[in-house]
């Protein structure tokens, strides 16, 4: 099995750029959702569990993805946010289901908050849950492949190539320090 193509594919700046772009789109979706849901919570005193849950998930995602947007730019990054992406994609799917239960069809007027004729905003909430979930799911796939590729390379090459390279030019000479131990210089 040729692992050089795997390494090149996942160390490719284009893949890292796509991952950063996906992270930015998740950040943008969570920012828009936080704004709309905060508007509903501030202006209407109706607070059901669906609305509060969606607000919490949007705010937590906003906070985490302020940092995650820039992680793919660093060379040491190898898909370490995979568990977080899997967890957040589950939470975003749950929020998408909640918003679909509340706002789909003719239920928009009667749910979260009830008798507030802001159906366009409520459908916007649904749309951004779909967008954010889609990119979180794509991130989970890309990060799983990136993590697996870096792990495969590490196992086949006996460690991390960058960290395990020799510090000298290959002309190491054993030197005794006089205490019975030998070091290489």
UniProtKB/TrEMBL annotation:
Q: What is the lineage of its organism?
A: Eukaryota, Fungi, Dikarya, Ascomycota, Pezizomycotina
Q: Tell me which species this is from.
A: Podospora bellae-mahoneyi
Which domain of life, per UniProt? Eukaryota
Q: What is this protein called?
A: MARVEL domain-containing protein
Q: Which residues cross the membrane?
A: 20-40, 52-74, 80-98, 127-148
Key word Membrane present: yes
Keyword list, A-Z: Membrane, Transmembrane, Transmembrane helix
